[in-house]
Amino acid sequence: MLRRYIYSAIFGSILSSFGPWGLASAADVKNVVIVHGALIDGSGWRAVSDGLTKKGYNVTIVQEPLTSLPDDVAATKRVLDLQDGPTVLVGHSYGGVVISEAGHAGNVAALVYVSGFEPEKGESVAKLQASNPVPDAKSTIKATADGYLYLEPSDLPRFIATDIPKRDAEFIGRAQVFTSSKVFAAEAGEPAWKTKPSWAVIATKDRAINPDLERSMAKRAGSKAVELDASHFVFMSKPNDVVDVIVDAAKGASR
Predict the structure, then answer these.
(1) N or C: which end of the chain has fewer CB within 10 A?
(2) Which stretches of 157-201 are DSSP H helices?
(3) Are 80 and 31 in contact (CB under 8 A)?
């Protein structure tokens, strides 16, 4: 009876030392969930997904509706609920706001922001962009009569995705997902990066988010930052480098 009590006390102490998210990171992380940004879908992540799959990771890409932040967070949590163990949650651009909310899920072991927003509580995409705009930004976002936003298709290859094949950028411009204006105005809640380890890919040629803003957000969040000489679509132009960052996060969270 005494031995059983001692074993219980010892193991209970060990488990409690993991903290609220340590149980997720105690095992090897083999799941990766990716959240795309606004105005696009997840198909551009094919090369990153294939690279991670070849390394033995189970990859799922969330196709959020882009109708509101709560809707997009719910879509992400729906996918997280299907994972069979600890997971690295990746967010691109506006997807960074989504993973900052959805990342509180118990099975999320690490966060990876890819040229993404890392908001503090109360911040929105609109507020962050206004705080440090891209110098001489020329891209134009237009609105439909019912409050959905879209990017002028010709701006994608000229300003946003300058380092991927022009025909690919043009197709993305024609196939973009119209995004509710609510998405950019939504204020973030308490961010998961305060309690989960995080990584950040800084795209030094980003024309959608000021690279200096990416750097300052990563520093504030304590994210391990990796700078890549790439556009906002770094996940398409340098997929192998992005894979390396995600793998580093998975290994770091597994320790």
Answers:
(1) N
(2) 166-174, 181-185
(3) no
Sign of CA dihedral 105, 109, 112, 118: positive
* 254: nearest Cα among 85, 139, 138, 98: 85
Sketch the domain layout of the chain as residue ranges. Answer: 19-254
What residues form DSSP beta bridges with 225? 200
> Given this model, what pLDDT does residue 1 score?
45
Side-chain half-sphere CA neighbours of 156 within 13 A: 20
Q: What DSSP element (H or E) covers 141? A: strand 141-143
pLDDT-based confidence at 15, cuts 50/70/90?
A: very low
Q: How far apart are CA 250 and CA 228, in angstroms?
A: 19
Round to whole Å and give the CA distance between 152 and 63: 22
pLDDT for residue 178 is more than 70: yes
Cα distance between residue 137 and residue 101, in whole Å: 29
Contact in structure between 161 and 172 (CB atoms under 8 Å): yes
Of the listed ranges 2-16, 99-113, 124-138, 238-252, the least confidently predicted one is: 2-16
**CATH superfamily ID and name for 19-254:** Alpha/Beta hydrolase fold, catalytic domain (3.40.50.1820)
Are 220 and 28 in contact by the 8 Å Cβ rule? The answer is no
Residue 3, pLDDT score: 43
- Does residue 154 carry a pLDDT above 90? no
Give tens-digit pLDDT for 90-119: 999 999 999 999 999 999 999 999 999 999
Question: Which residues does 174 contact at the CB level (< 8 Å), separation at least 6?
Answer: 153
Cβ(86)–Cβ(107) below 8 Å:
yes
